[in-house]
Design a protein that fits this description.
The two termini are 31 Å apart. By secondary structure, the protein is of the alpha/beta class. Strands 7-6-5-4-3-2-1-8 form an 8-stranded parallel β-sheet. It has a single domain, classed as Alanine racemase (TIM Barrel). It is built from 9 helices and 8 strands. The structure holds pyridoxal-5'-phosphate.
């Protein structure tokens, strides 16, 4: 077994253990393998070990990888910060976008999504960490954005995503995830929506996120190893 296949097995076991431990039982949790900065061969190894969904953060890096792996029929999630001049590439090559935080970006994605493709699956990124974090829409701004994005024709609003501030305080991190779930539930009820996705939890905190209802965990390091050449670092 390759290192990546063994790591995947370990991560899947972590997820399964936590899913079983949660009371009341939680729904299935999907694993998004975050392959940013890793080469096509690493993704092939993960795919050979049964992994289907991959996350990328940089359009220029991702486009050739997606093209090279086209015959595998993988599912691609864009999870990076998204500027207006990069939306076209995302709308063309990805099935999911996790980090939408501005209406302008969502509008462009909807306009640019080919009518022959299924709607782009979208999560809105929420800042549940207050001043400790700069990314994401504030909980106060969220209702307006949710309503506007839900109305866009070529997007399907699937839910919310967050990246809490880095912290060793498990109770604090967990409270951030709980907040995201509460916001999702509240907005579903208020606007009659069916947001089914909570994209939260990474290599270091996926158990905490699952305990609070994560439906997608985004895991990079624990599968592929440390990123030495992260363009964002
Ligand atoms: C890089 C990245 C991850 C993966 O983080 P790890 O700690 O390596 O698991 C998850 N989510 C987002 C948005 C990322 O940019």
């Amino acid at each position: 077994m390759t290192g990546i296949a063994a790591n995947l097995q370990t991560v899947r076991a972590r997820i399964a253990r936590e899913v079983q431990a949660v009371e009341p039982p939680v729904q299935a949790v999907s694993l998004l393998a975050v392959s940013k900065t890793f080469p096509v061969e690493a993704i092939r190894e993960a795919a050979a070990a049964g992994q289907r969904a991959f996350g990328e953060s940089y359009v220029q890096e991702a486009a050739p990888k997606i093209e090279a792996l086209g015959e595998l029929g993988l599912e691609w999630h864009f999870i990076g910060p998204l500027q207006a001049n990069k939306t076209r590439g995302v709308a063309a090559a990805f099935q999911w976008v996790h980090g939408v935080e501005r209406l302008r970006i969502a509008q462009r994605l909807s306009e640019q999504r080919d009518v022959h493709l299924p709607p782009l699956q979208v999560c809105l990124q929420v800042n549940v960490s207050g001043e400790q974090s700069k990314s994401g829409v504030t909980p106060e701004e969220l209702p307006e954005l949710v309503q506007a994005v839900a109305a866009l024709p070529r997007l399907q609003l699937r839910g919310l995503m967050t990246i809490p501030e880095a912290s060793d305080d498990d109770a604090l991190v967990r409270s951030r995830f709980a907040r995201l779930r509460a916001l999702r539930d509240e907005l579903n009820q208020r606007f009659g929506l069916e947001m089914d996705t909570l994209s939260m939890g990474m290599s270091g905190d996926l158990e905490l996120a699952i305990a609070e209802g994560a439906t997608i965990v985004r895991v990079g390091t624990a599968i592929f190893g440390n990123r030495e050449a992260d363009p964002a670092a």
